[in-house]
Specification:
It comes from Streptococcus urinalis 2285-97. The protein is mainly alpha-helical. It contains 22 helices and no strands. The chain starts with a helix and ends in a 13-residue tail after the last helix.
């Protein structure tokens, strides 16, 4: 229990200390007008209060990632706590804050546009492909997972899984085309309250229920995975949401379009990632405390982590309260799935230059995306999850490199993003080289050496392009000067 409570304390401490430093390094301007004010359109650009933005951000980024990921990450033992704690404070929360605030300074631009602006125009196409792939996978995963959770609490035979999936799709389709303050602003606060109550209930029962909560000690500081999977790089892909997740880079710009003051950024972006880290800690602790590694592995292998969620809720809270609490878990993937489809529609529309100002145009972009996603729901979940995880962390690397280039151009401390970017770049290269979904080289000395060479090569190219950009930045000072009127970028969105 000491490791669990100490980890949560460190997460909160990180918000007040390192989060404050990251905010200072960014140099906020509380008097600067935001996109929500300047570009207000009653649809995507809508001023909303800080508390509502924070709730939307938390539900957008959470999904089942900080639940399913830590459940599977618990197979490695207490060492998983370290990745959640330090990954969240020094990588994930920094990533979310920087992308949210850079977007805020660039009229709510999404990651592809930011990559084009700060990494070069040729990167826009690469990032668009990765962003669209990631969001499509996220949206599909967050149709399947809530459907399985809903099925687990319904009376047997009451409703078949395909019908539940169809109902979720209909809900997503309706909500995707509504103004953001109606689709998200009205229902997300209620969803967030349900989430917080159910999560707090699980955490409270863990602490007060006399459960044997494993601590990180000399004897447990090792790989405890029952099938012997390597900690690196597998753990860093198993637990993404709750540590660092590229999906968040597709969601933060949505909230940057509804934020009315730059002072809100640390609470909304950095703070909500810390909150997600707390959720991840609770579910990792619950999975380690209630199940032995082999039992947990069998439960996951028998279907999806949904079975573990169901068992945890019933064991900790009882049948009735546990079922109610599962609803709090269901709202996570439902809200993130909706946000994923909404972001995907916006990115695709921007890429193919179809302005989303009428319902026919909105449906012309949206419906084909739903058809593709529906087809993907028939793909094996575990295979889908592995591809999602890799695309997710590649997107995180891109987001951190965008943030690094931004800080370089501003002559500020860029190591706060370059260090986690370099580590995650090495991880994604090693993962795709070693895994069956990639080159299937296995994890050996050759794989690590090749991964190192590729990583160093990519970072060198990044450094070279950055030096070139720095030499020409004086002629493009208007483009990179945050103090210039925001209206300059209005035509770009």
């Amino acid at each position: 229990m000491v490791t669990f409570l100490g980890g949560i304390f460190l997460l909160v401490l990180g918000y007040f200390t390192y989060g404050k430093y990251i905010e200072k390094n960014f140099q906020i301007d509380a008097n600067r007008q935001t996109p929500a004010e300047v570009l207000k359109d009653g649809y995507d650009f809508v001023p909303m209060p800080k508390w509502k933005n924070a709730m939307i951000e938390l539900l957008n980024i959470a999904g089942t990632g900080p639940i399913f990921g830590p459940i599977m990450g618990a197979l490695y033992g207490p060492v998983a706590y370290l990745w959640i704690i330090f990954g969240c404070i020094f990588a994930g929360a920094v990533h979310d804050y920087m992308i949210g605030m850079i977007s805020l300074r660039n009229n709510g631009a999404y990651l592809p546009e930011l990559a084009s602006r700060y990494l070069g125009k040729s990167m826009k196409h690469v990032i668009n492909i990765f962003s669209m792939l990631l969001l499509l996978l996220v949206a599909t995963v967050f149709v399947v997972t809530p459907a399985n959770l809903i099925l687990s609490i319904l009376p047997k035979g009451f409703l078949a899984l395909p019908w539940i999936i169809a109902i979720i799709f209909v809900y997503y389709l309706i909500s995707t085309v509504l103004p953001i303050d109606k689709a998200l602003g009205k229902v997300y606060p209620a969803f967030c309250v349900i989430l917080m109550i159910s999560t707090a209930a699980v955490g409270f029962r863990l602490v007060t229920g006399g459960f044997d909560m494993p601590n990180l000690t000399v004897s447990t500081f090792r790989n405890m995975h029952p099938t012997g999977l390597h900690i690196f790089p597998a753990l860093f892909f198993t637990i993404s949401c709750g540590a660092i997740s590229g999906f968040h880079a597709t969601q933060a710009p949505m909230v940057s379009r509804t934020t009315v003051n730059e002072r809100e950024g640390r609470f909304t972006f950095y703070g909500m990632m810390i909150a997600e880290g707390v959720i991840a800690m609770i579910w990792a602790a619950a999975s380690m405390s209630l199940f032995k590694g082999q039992t947990l592995n069998q439960m996951i292998a028998s279907g999806t982590p949904s079975a573990v969620v169901n068992q945890v809720m019933v064991m900790l809270l009882g049948g009735t309260l546990g079922t109610i609490a599962i609803i709090g878990v269901i709202v996570l993937p439902v809200s993130s799935g909706l946000s994923a489809f909404r972001s995907l529609r916006t990115i695709v529309a921007d890429y193919i230059h179809v302005k989303q100002d009428t319902l026919p145009k909105i449906f012309a972009v949206t419906i084909p995306l739903y058809v593709i996603s529906f087809v993907l729901t028939h793909v094996d979940f575990n295979l889908l999850w592995r591809y999602f995880n890799w695309a997710n962390q590649v997107t995180a690397v891109i987001g951190l490199l965008v943030a690094t280039r931004y800080l370089v151009l501003k002559r500020r401390n860029y190591f706060v993003t370059l260090i986690p970017a370099s580590f995650m770049l090495y991880a994604v290269v090693a993962y795709i080289l070693s895994q069956k979904i990639g080159f299937n080289m296995g994890l050996n000395l050759i794989t690590y050496l090749v991964s190192t060479l590729i990583t160093v090569g990519l970072l060198f190219l990044f450094w070279q392009s950055g030096q070139k950009q720095l030499r020409t930045v004086s002629s493009d000072a208007f483009l990179f000067n945050d103090q210039k009127p925001i209206h300059y970028f209005a035509s770009l969105d």
